[in-house]
What we know:
Blueprint: H1 2-10, H2 15-27, H3 31-37, H4 42-48, H5 52-65, H6 73-94, H7 99-105, H8 110-125
Amino acid sequence: MEKKTIENYKCGYNCSQAILKSCSHELEIDEEALIKLSSGLGFGMYTGQTCGAVTAANIIFGLKYGSSDYNDKDSLRKVYKMIKTFETSFKEKNFSLNCGELKKVYKVDCEVLIKTSAEILKELLNK
């Protein structure tokens, strides 16, 4: 998954798109729809806020474990638990969830963030 995600990024997809594109088959969701959906999430939602590699993971957890039934609190708790676990691990490895901080303060390359995100996702999705 990590290799495919990096290849997507190097082809020109933003960080969110690269991750979601590489998960489309596993999620059984149209790749083109995921790419369009995540087009505004790169570069911290184009404001330097939450890293696109993180927002992509949140979307993946929602798609994989969420429910369209607003009464399904168990699914919602599962999604929130996965997000919290992912974000804790991501922050431990990269110091922050904030795109601007990651790039300017910590000088972490986007490729590293995308690879880290893909590694954590792969681990959590295979549990």
